[in-house]
UniProtKB/TrEMBL annotation, chains A, B:
Protein name: TetR/AcrR family transcriptional regulator
Ranges where the HTH tetR-type domain occurs: 10-70
Organism: Antrihabitans stalactiti
Residues in the DNA-binding region annotation: 33-52
Upper taxonomic lineage: Bacteria, Bacillati, Actinomycetota, Actinomycetes, Mycobacteriales
Assembly information from the UniProt record: Homodimer.
Length: 187, 187
């Protein structure tokens, strides 16, 4: 395939993802109709679904994109830094509110759940690798199993996503994240 | 009003709330249609909406009922115990998944948000009172402001609700809650 065409495809794909992200953030998962997706991407349904099989595929592609970005930060600076970034720019993470809408489907639709879990594995792996490294450096507390520390950070992340989604990301959350960071550190 | 009639009203009200709780847990907030509410409560729409103005009012009444029960546990045993109870009997808290569905409305509908916040104030007040008491007894850490500790516990609670709603309340969460409890305690 000639290079110009590959570039074109990548640009189109990214145009669709950007539009879909805004669309999900504004209207929610259920509310993001094909018509609204056409409006926010500026493309026809034919073009959109040429690149992505269906709305689920679009959604999982966005989740994958986010997980990749978050994993990069988590690998270098830790999951708490991922959370600080979310707190600093909640508007970029608005679309994550749709994660909450899909909670029911995660519980009841095994195929969808598998797709979702594959996408979040990257972030889990990056966080775990960093925790292991910090532990080896003697900077992580060693009186609690690493998987519990991971589960703890993950639970706080879920709480933060819920908070941002409901527009309740209040002032003292920065202090809360200091406390979270300190409580996994070696005393 | 004669006593028998008051008893009857209270019983009817509680029958409606129990049915509505099951209905929300099973079908979600949007999915809980009037027809389904009739089925799960075993009452006509006329009877249901004689007691509760609309679906929002039903929802907020359930939230109020839960907040009251949780506040009682929080006042005596703390918010972490509330979370341990949720973890031990996740099926009773399934309906809380609807809290996630309504996140968008909390963000965009001020009247609904006010109603919701009034209902959760009781739990916040009970948790705060216990934290202050523990602090006075010297059992709470005093190097972090109490409102940050409260915000921290609240954030973990939000995470736990999200986790239960998506059916991902995994084994190591009990260890995670030990860590949470320890991190607010005086060393």
């Amino acid at each position: 395939m000639p290079k110009v065409s590959e570039d074109h495809l990548a640009a189109r794909r990214s145009q669709i993802l950007d539009g879909a992200r805004r669309c999900f953030a504004e209207y929610g998962y259920e509310g993001a109709t094909v018509r609204l997706l056409e409006e926010t991407t500026g493309l026809s349904r034919g073009a959109i679904f040429h690149h992505f099989r269906d709305k689920d595929a679009l959604f999982l592609a966005l989740a994958h994109e986010d997980a990749g970005r978050m994993a990069e930060v988590a690998a270098n600076q830790g999951l708490v830094q991922v959370m600080r970034d979310m707190l600093a720019r909640p508007e970029e993470f608005d679309w994550l509110g749709t994660r909450l809408e899909i909670a029911r489907r995660l519980r009841t639709d095994p195929e969808f759940r598998d797709g979702w879990e594959q996408r979040s594995e990257e972030l889990t792996a990056a966080t775990l690798a960093r925790l292991e490294r910090r532990k080896a450096e003697g900077r992580l507390r060693d009186d609690v199993p690493t998987d519990v520390l991971l589960g703890y950070l993950d639970l706080v992340l879920d709480g933060l996503i819920a908070r941002i989604a409901s527009g309740h990301a209040s002032d003292n959350l920065s202090g809360v994240l200091d406390l979270v960071e300190e409580s996994v550190r070696r005393k």
